[in-house]
Amino acid sequence: MNALLYVPGFCVVLYFLNDENLLLCVLNAAVFVFVQVGMNWQFLEAGDEIRSNFINGAFNFGRQFMYKWTVNWKFLSEEVFLDSKFHTFLLVLQVVLLLSVLLLKWVSVKATGKPISQLIKDGLKFWSCTISPKHIIFDQRFGGRYVMLVICGSNMIGILCARSLHYQFLSWYYYSLPFLLSACSFPLIVDVALVVAHEWCWNVYPSTALSSGVLVSILSLIVVRLTFVDWFKVIEPESDEKSFETKKNN
């Protein structure tokens, strides 16, 4: 189910890679559905009971996690951790954060080359390719980085708002952490400190209120930074001409 955390960012990227043609986007998305159905067909056709158990096991959104194994919410009481209101709060928070980064970064004028109002109008022409040639995704230098920031950022928001993180869940995002920190544009010493502190949090066993509090603080800092930092100022290197002038003046 952790792959679902990538879905919001993936849908945005897929829409732009299909030139903002919603019809093509849906057709391409259907390919992924057919692949998943084909891979799991032996379970889906094995009978009602097996099919039901398989689907419920694969997408068990009502699963109740055990407090003693949580890595990220140990600073809360077990009563709060198990409360359905807390789970609802995390879901709402995830939606709010996704909408914030969507509007401020993923579909910003700097990214798409046109205002959001025009993007919405063009979206209603679901059969047409309306993407602007100024979209950052066409830039050979920065397009790939934009895609990674959108997809990995979507996953990081999901990690922050996860009802519980267990020790094996570190693999969900660990290898994207250096990339996301580089996009945050912190000083190098801060990056090193965050990586060390993050590693310490995941090596405390069993987790404590302090280790989980530090972990959530680090994840929150990264998400907030990615939401408000100027991506394009960060990823756009100084031109050769400006670099030459700077060296000349110095």
Q: Would you mind describing this structure in some detail?
A:
This protein has 250 residues and is mainly alpha-helical. The protein has one domain (2-239). It has 14 helices and no strands. Helix 9 runs antiparallel to helix 12 (209-228) and helix 11 (188-203) packs antiparallel against helix 12 (209-228). 20% of the residues are buried. Mean pLDDT is 88; it is low at 243-248.
**Number of DSSP strands?**
0
Give the low-confidence spans.
Answer: 243-248
What spatial form do the alpha-carbon principal axes imply? globular
Q: Please summarize the sheet with the most strands.
A: none
- How much of the sequence lies in strands comes to under 5%
Radius of gyration, in angstroms, nearest whole number: 21 Å
N/C terminus separation: 53 Å
Mean pLDDT: 88
Number of helical segments with 4 or more residues: 14
Tally of separate domains: 1
Share of helix, binned: 55-70%
Spell the H/E element sequence. HHHHHHHHHHHHHH
Question: Which structural class fits the helix and strand makeup?
Answer: mainly alpha
Primary descriptors:
250 residues, 14 helices, mainly alpha, 0% strand, single chain, globular
Short account of what is shown:
The protein is mainly alpha-helical. The protein has helices spanning 7-17, 22-39, 41-44, 48-58, 78-82, 84-106, 109-112, 116-123, 143-160, 177-184, 188-203, 209-228, 231-235, 240-249.
SSE layout and pairings?
Layout: H1 7-17, H2 22-39, H3 41-44, H4 48-58, H5 78-82, H6 84-106, H7 109-112, H8 116-123, H9 143-160, H10 177-184, H11 188-203, H12 209-228, H13 231-235, H14 240-249
Helix pairs in contact: 1-2, 1-9, 6-9, 6-12, 9-12, 11-12
